[in-house]
Here is the input.
Amino acid sequence: MEQIIATVRDFGGALVVVPEPGGDFPELAWGDAFFYYAPDGQLPKNVQPYGTVVTKNYPDDTASDLDLPDRRRVNIHVDRTTFRELTGEEPGRLDRIYDYAVTDCVMPHPVYGALGWISVVNPAEKTGELVVKLLRGAHEDARARFARRQEHGR
Here is the structure.
């Protein structure tokens, strides 16, 4: 996971936030990573990250068994077409039942899949390169949204 975080840090304009004790983030977020497009290096306001690395279960998100040792999950927001290609489903209409604890497999996010998020627990041989490609695409999408907001003075 450190390699994925380091790779995203190298994307032009990327801001990688990894909350630690004593900071402004709640304890629950400590140790996780949040990826933003922020060329000024400032945490964007009113913008969700385009990707995350989660290191533990959250109260409403336990299906991936992230409290077990050595488990991490990369989460990436993708466009509708990419979501469909990766999952065979439409965001908003997920019909299949998934085992969200399976590793090295792309699937809808267990909580936010309906909103176009995919996830991979412990990306490795089968999904490692794809995860980086998807993060790069999500970064470029975030960059384009940033440019549109700048263009419209927001």
Notes: The mean pLDDT is 95. The radius of gyration is 15 Å.
